[in-house]
Amino acid sequence: MHLKSTYRLENDQNEHVFGPGRFRILELIRELGSMNKAAQQLGMSYRGLWSRIRLTEKRLGFPLVMTESGRGTQLTPEGEDLLKKYSVLRSRCQAADDAVYQEIFGDHPIPGI
Amino acid sequence: MHLKSTYRLENDQNEHVFGPGRFRILELIRELGSMNKAAQQLGMSYRGLWSRIRLTEKRLGFPLVMTESGRGTQLTPEGEDLLKKYSVLRSRCQAADDAVYQEIFGDHPIPGI
Fold it and tell me: pTM score, two decimals?
């Protein structure tokens, strides 16, 4: 058995702002330089991907992606910053949480697990 | 903005074993002494609640609840143990994760948040 944690950022109205799904979207846009290709790779519609990004941008108050003619779509500096911070957050939380899990469930496992 | 984490226990096949939903189910069964009342309070069908418990029991390999004639439904000692351990896990992980969040997002917030 192991711990599977999910980390989401919410605004003060407890609305979803950013999590693993949008992290993956931004990662792919950065990698592929295209929202269309990112959507295809995720098996999502362009519209679905775009609406998620727009909602997060709206809730954050700044743009995450920018599209320039001939250069495709790139992350804005704020988008890059969010991607990096979330990645660090997730890694560090996972390490901390796994240690907690081991302390509680590792030494004295529930019988049968 | 704040961090909203979810903690789930999975088996070695990455199948769901226990998380916030089943935690709440066990809490209510303990409180109400009845799976029917717990299901009502959660707006779930008895069948839906029961199938979730059974699946978790199957994946753990031991029973979480026991029903005795005239005494309603109670948690087994293993069910109590799981409830308690998960509760401690969640509290401690939340504290650790919130500290990580503050370090990363607290001092240098993303503009606009």
Answer: 0.88
